[in-house]
Amino acid sequence: MSAAEVGVGPTGPATAPTGAPTETKDRAMYEISQLTKTYTQGKRTVHALQAVDLTIGTGELVSIQGPTGGGKSTLLQMLGGLDRPTSGSITLDGTDLARVSDSRLTRVRAETIGFVFQGFNLIPTLTAQENVETALVPGKVPAAARAARATAALEQVGLGDRGAHLPVELSGGQQQRVAIARALVKAPTVLLADEPTGNLDEQTRDEIVDLLEGLWKEQGLTVVMVTHDSTVARRTQRRLRIAGGRLTEI
Amino acid sequence: MFFTYLRRELSNRRKQSVIIAIGMAVAIALVMIVNAVAAGVSDAQDDVLDSVYGVGTDITVTQAGEPGGRGPGRFDVGSDDGEASDDGGSRSFDQDQLAVARGTASFDASALDTVAGIEHVAGTTGTLVLSNTSFSGEVPDFGQMQGGQGGGPGGGDAQSAPTGGADGAGGSAFSIDAFTVTGVDPAADAVGPLTAVEVSDGRGLETADNTSGDDGAAGTVAVLDSTYAESADLAVGDTVTVGGTDLDVVGVVSSTSGEGVSTGSDVYVPLALAQSLADLDGQVSNVYVQADSSEHVDAISDAISAALPDVSVSTQADLASSVTGSLSTASDLVSTLGLWLSVIVLAAAFGIAILFTVSGVTRRTRELGTLKAIGWPNGRVVGQVAGESLVQGLIGGVAGLALGLVGIGVINALGITLSGATGTGGFTFGGPGGFGGAGGAGADAGAGPGAAGGGPGGGGGGGPFGGAADAAQSAVDVALHAPVSVTVIVVAIGLAVLGGLLAGLVGGRRAARLRPAEALRSVA
Ligand SMILES: Nc1ncnc2c1ncn2[C@@H]1O[C@H](COP(=O)(O)OP(=O)(O)OP(=O)(O)O)[C@@H](O)[C@H]1O
Ligand SMILES: [Mg+2]
């Protein structure tokens, strides 16, 4: 069975965890076909993605596993509109991310996609509150509304009292919560996470996954999470594996 | 968010910020100081020119004298001159000589009418600039004291009586007193040397002085420059001997250019008197011309040259470049060393700012990539980086402004005095004998109005009376005042903005090229 075949079509409700949003699942959030990404470094070319076909339904919680250098982050970059594929197409909610203009792609990232990174990627000079607010800068949200929404988002991740702290004053788990608040404050439709628990201990890892799962359930988000941790992957309704640039369903 | 982020970022990398600010501040302060001093030197040159040529003079007309011609450098001590005393076979002398300043010649005053008739000429006046040299002393009883002998001792301190004569015969003792006498038209108050003076004691010259003497001749009155009056210990009511005639000192004038500036001449007398004393009736040596508008200066200058082929015509610009003395040294120093130093330090400061900005962007690759990844438009990220540089530059600019103002204040507080003399155009004393005018050598030659303060020791080595002739040259002392002008402040702020923009541009370009995918880079 090829990756293309398994990836196509919405996932049945039977595999969804209880309480997961089901009503929107029939529509595809992502439709990817023959997606290829080739990096050229001098004479060496790396086929990071090779003819990947994949459909991710709206409201799905998907994990991507695989060996290091397998192409996980590269696929996530394509999903997040951070880079353009070498060939193939990738549509997000009807928008072809491979072909839209740079400014349109920037707007998609600003409005539709929330990112969570392995290294948290908070701005070190800004407080937790301000870090969350940065996500609302592209939307030109007025300052007062911005502050209110950021505060609410921090409360949602359980850090209502830590808004004034700088990232260095927070633990890893708390920093990742701030990063999640930053990703969610703009009410995106897609949440992409690259090894969100990679830098955390087991207990914190479980707390973060609990948080993400809770948000997924509450907000009807489509979540794609790269992880090398099978414990984390087992908690997702759909598990993909990518190795050597080729995608397979687990 | 923009300012919060900017402020945090700058205070976070405080060390770099301080280094950039210091570099920028030093460079800007230097530029300000050089700029202000240059303006001060230029003002001083204007003061010198005003003192010598009067305020509002656009063009000066002079005529060069023939070398070796009538000039103060020559005394004729014949056997029938002076008071012969038979004791010991020596002669004692007390002789005054009044002649057109060395290297210049007088010309017919009809030139005035010629010039006045030229289109766009708003005003003219003529003066007769004379040099009075009095010689007193004793020489052995043979008349070899001839001027014009190169290599004589006169280049040095002419006040001390050389024990050996110029001819090496020995037994001579003499002293020389020289000062400038300018015959002016008392009625000329719009153009000419009197426009730059004000009466500080007694009265100025009046039109009546032209005819107040015997038989309608000019009155024997004189007005003294205050600096000269002081050095010669003269005051209103005293007499001053010019060309052997005693004149009543009726007034003392000082320069309107400000404290510490001497006027262009030591003694002012009515033009008619100067003409008769020097036996130069109907002659002038200088014509001052005022144009009705600065744009006509060149045309007038050409017209004068055409109408009066023998004269030399100098515009203010020509005259400015003819200023010599410590003033011109300062001017050269400011325009070369000052300029290059400013350029180098400025380039270094800009370089540091750019380097730190670029390294800052490189260090923040993941941070800036993350902002792009979460949807910050490229322009917003670039703006943030450029804004940081700009503010950084402005901080340096403000610090530099303060530093520069302090520096300029210090320079003004030092009370530096510059000396300037005008040395070309035949107006003054560039005659044979090598007195280009830069002389400190003859500075204390007795008669001089504290002439030629700290000039590089030029002069010397001309005729035996070279020292005296040099002192007679109208050197003008000016206190250096470096002004803080709007231009200086605008230049300072402008450079700060330029430096900030430059660094921001380079840093911003780098930030613009960052891929949003850099956000996914593994933690360094
Ligand atoms: N910008 C790039 N330039 C060149 N090669 C790249 C670039 N990014 C990724 N690659 C290569 O593409 C391949 C896939 O990389 P990718 O980062 O997607 O792997 P990954 O599965 O995320 O690995 P890891 O688990 O280590 O994060 C690797 O061989 C990598 O070296
Ligand atoms: Mg990766």
Reconstruct the topology from this structure:
The complex is a heterodimer of chains A (250) and B (524).
Chain A lengths: L2 H5 L20 E14 L2 E14 L3 E5 L6 H8 L7 E6 L2 E2 L5 H10 L1 E4 L11 H7 L8 H14 L15 H13 L5 E5 L7 H18 L2 E5 L3 H4 L4 E6 L2 E4 L1
Parallel strand pairs in A: 3-8, 3-9, 6-7, 7-8
Antiparallel strand pairs in A: 1-2, 1-4, 4-5, 9-10
Chain B lengths: L1 H11 L1 H40 L5 E4 L20 E2 L5 E11 L6 E2 L1 H7 L4 E20 L32 E12 L12 E6 L18 E5 H6 L7 E4 L2 E11 L11 E4 H7 L5 E2 L1 E6 L5 H11 L4 E4 H5 L2 E2 L1 H38 L1 H9 L4 H37 L2 E6 L43 H7 L3 E4 L6 H28 L11
The complex binds adenosine-5'-triphosphate and magnesium ion.
**CATH topology of the largest domain in chain A, anyone?**
Rossmann fold
Q: So, the CATH homologous superfamily of the largest domain in chain A?
A: P-loop containing nucleotide triphosphate hydrolases
Oligomer: heterodimer
Instruction: Figure out the total of helices of chain A.
Output: 8
Shape by Cα distribution of chain B: elongated
Distance between the termini of chain A: 11 Å
Largest interface pair: A-B, 37 and 25 residues
Shape annotation of chain A: globular
Structural class of chain A: alpha/beta
* Biggest sheet overview of chain B: 12 strands, mixed
- Average pLDDT, all residues of chain B: 76
Radius of gyration of chain B: 31 Å
GO molecular function, one term (chain A): transmembrane transporter activity
InterPro entries (chain A): AAA+_ATPase (IPR003593), ABC_transporter-like_ATP-bd (IPR003439), ABC_transporter-like_CS (IPR017871), ABC_transpr_LolD-like (IPR015854), MacB-like_ATP-bd (IPR017911), P-loop_NTPase (IPR027417)
Keywords (chain A): ATP-binding, Nucleotide-binding, Transport
Protein name (chain A): Putative ABC transport system ATP-binding protein
